[in-house]
Amino acid sequence: MRDVPYIEASSYIRTERSLRFLARDARNPWAALVYWLETTEPSRESSFFDATQKFGTLMQLVLPDERPGVFVKRDAVQSVTDFGTVKRLVFKDGSALDVRYAGPRSDLYDEATSQPHDHVCQLVPSKSAAVSRAGNGRLSPERNEP
């Protein structure tokens, strides 16, 4: 039988993930839920404060129902749809998040570095400017196709 070589953990290939946003863990308010681009389930950090420091400059935003907000990485935002005081952040992976923000949408992303959409769709808000959620918990805006 051949001996299997020991491989140091530091020699594993690591893939670089890009942050979407941070939120407090409802089960443990000291911890953070970390939402990554291209990943549906969040990871957890034991310290919310340390997580906010670790990921650099973040925008603190309030959710539409005025719950304590999230900390969004501006570079991860592709575009913003304006519904008045509610803005829909569309991230570079196509996921979306509604936030309450009365300022201009240009404050929430960098138009110069955002890539254009692959398709054109018109978002139609409901009366309360909220969006329906699909069974998987992701936002699913209505699409009006020509």
What would you say this structure looks like, in words?
This protein has one helix at residues 48-54, and strands at residues 19-25, 28-36, 43-45, 59-61, 70-72, 77-83, 86-91, 96-100. By secondary structure, it is mainly β. The strands form two sheets. Strands 3-2-1-5-4 form a five-stranded antiparallel beta sheet, with helices on one face. It has a three-stranded antiparallel beta sheet with strand order 6-7-8, with no helix packed on it. A hairpin with a 6-residue loop joins strand 2 (28-36) and strand 3.
- What is the makeup of the main sheet? 5 strands, antiparallel
Average pLDDT figure = 77
Instruction: Please tally the β strands and state the result.
Output: 8
Radius of gyration: 18 Å
Our measurement of the CA-to-CA distance between the termini, rounded to an integer number of angstroms, reads: 66 Å
Percent helix, as a range, is under 10%
Keywords:
mainly beta; three-stranded antiparallel sheet; 1 helix; disordered C terminus
In brief, what are we looking at here?
The chain is mainly β and 146 residues long. The chain has 1 helix and 8 strands.
Topology readout:
Elements lengths: L18 E7 L2 E9 L6 E3 L2 H7 L4 E3 L8 E3 L4 E7 L2 E6 L4 E5 L46
Antiparallel strand pairs: 1-2, 1-5, 2-3, 4-5, 6-7, 7-8
